[in-house]
Amino acid sequence: MERRGPSHSGPYGRACTGCFKAKCKCVARADGPGCQRCHSLNRACQPSDSVRRSTILKKQNANARIAELEKKLESVIERLEPRNPPDGDPQREHQPGRLAPAVNSRNVHASLSASAVENDPEESEDTDTDNDQDAGTVLWSPGQAGLDGPPTAAFAASDFASDAENETLLTTFRSRMLQHFPFVHLPSEVTAHQLRRDRPLLLRAIVCVASQKGKPTQSSELRRAMSEALLLQETDRIDLLLALLTYLSWGWDHSKLMSRLTMQAVSLACEMSNPTPQDMDAPMRALFIPDVDTDAPPSTSHFLEQQRAVLGCFVLSSAVSSYFNHVNALRWTPHMDEGLAALGANRECPTDAAFAVQVRLQLLGQKAVYIRQQQQTEQGYMQAPADTPLINALVSLMPLQGELEELKKSLPVSEPSRHLAHIAATELVINETRHAVNAMEPMIISHFSAMTASNTVGRGPSKAAERSWCLWQCVHAIKACADALLALSASDFAGISFVQWAQLARSIVVLNHLTTGLEDQAWNRADVRDVVDMPVLLDRVAGQLELAAQVAGEQEPEGAFTGHARRMREFCSDWRTSTAREHRTSEHLDARSRVYGGARAGGLANMPVIN
């Protein structure tokens, strides 16, 4: 060890190995080599490495790590190079989720050097500051040149589609699909390039639902991009909500994820449907939540765009709620009344009036669902049926039918088939709720219904007659809904949204219950089959799905339409077999009832919902 002055400890970083480990002061001996502590303990005094030598070793280790990372990066680039678009493609520039084109060895080395030594305080002081500009060359391009969109999953299939392909898919979406559920306004002058700049996630969703090529891959990448935008990035909420609604309405391959995606859309809609201006408590909340939203009031066009998205989320979440029965629909708020009135009065967008009709019809049906849910909840807390909750339910149902009749009268005679189907589906929900209430009402409510009936003189209809009337109203509503949807052309049927599909599915499920599952002595199933024959209806739906598959250009045997058509025909065959078996069983029971004095009739507490 080097000689140092007597009674002076070594400079910082020059202590011997023993003193360094023991965290003791290292004092050199004046009369010999080594330090005083090692000499007194009779140990060998081994000098430690100098600061300069340690720094050299650290640089060598960092260079080794950099070389290893460079090899890995080069292998990744070699694998991805065949998928790159040709030079001069306008889509290559300024796209989210894409590696920057300029990648050379010097920039790679500089950026990796910065990342390798960023946690080393000693080495960072010796690093050349001139490399700071090159450290971020390899990065994810987060929407340059006016792109507001979030950085999404790298090398997505939709990113490589040309503007011409995207324009064709946008035209298909605008002409075939959007008319069935116009929750977004896309004028004909809006191009795919403009959507890529202003609404990148919405464009990706449109390309995904309107294209038939690489559907599973595009759907997976779109879901990944929306998840990243929802949880990891600062994204425009309206763009994300519109993308979610588009994918949910026309995706056809997300049945297992539909509940979760719907709840994400509902959460976004709740953020936008609650007005923040004129909130006196917002400055106080900002003291505790610094990132509270204090944006200025939106413009008229942006306000209408938000209201379309929020109301579209209400309609879609209501349809999903009735289809799966375990998802809560978006609750209606007074602020949504204002948005609905604004859309109904808007004449600049030609689809706003039709969309407002859809929302009003869905709201009437959802009000009936709320009445049934509230009545069932109140009955669950009581040991026996009580008069007051059931009377309130019947009184609440009376104005819904009146509002529906007024809405039907206000519509033009040449109303589209999808609106006729929606009207019939709303009538079905109202009559289902009315039948469910009548099924558990005590005798006093039968007298109340008789006294309040305007078309009855003297004694009103019996309880069984009231139930039978509700069931027949359901049968006629089922027939009207199915006829309206199946009257669409194959091209129009190929563009129906999940809202129309849920209406058709619910009609078939309720019809199946009325023809096979309802046990009521006063109910004749054969008469129902004379009005709507279940096998004939299933064959019509399967045939329409097969025609829609041809129009959509499906090539796979398990595509969205071909797969549904195959399952529909299989179910029709099974239904015929099971119905024939039940018919033989019922004839045997009728014979026994004639011998033993009649069969016992059952009742129905609730109409089924689709699951």
Describe the structure.
Keywords: Coiled coil, DNA-binding, Nucleus, Transcription, Transcription regulation. The protein is mostly helical. It has helices at residues 17-22, 36-40, 51-80, 105-116, 121-126, 163-177, 192-198, 200-210, 215-231, 237-250, 258-273, 282-288, 300-324, 334-345, 352-380, 387-410, 417-439, 443-452, 463-486, 490-493, 498-517, 525-531, 534-552, 560-596. It folds into three domains: 51-133, no CATH class; 157-275 and 296-321, no CATH class; 351-596, no CATH class. Helix 3 (51-80) packs across helix 4 and helix 13 crosses helix 14. Residues 1-7, 83-158, 443-447, 454-460 and 591-611 have low confidence and may be disordered.
In short:
By secondary structure, the protein is mostly helical. The chain has helices at 17-22, 36-40, 51-80, 105-116, 121-126, 163-177, 192-198, 200-210, 215-231, 237-250, 258-273, 282-288, 300-324, 334-345, 352-380, 387-410, 417-439, 443-452, 463-486, 490-493, 498-517, 525-531, 534-552, 560-596.
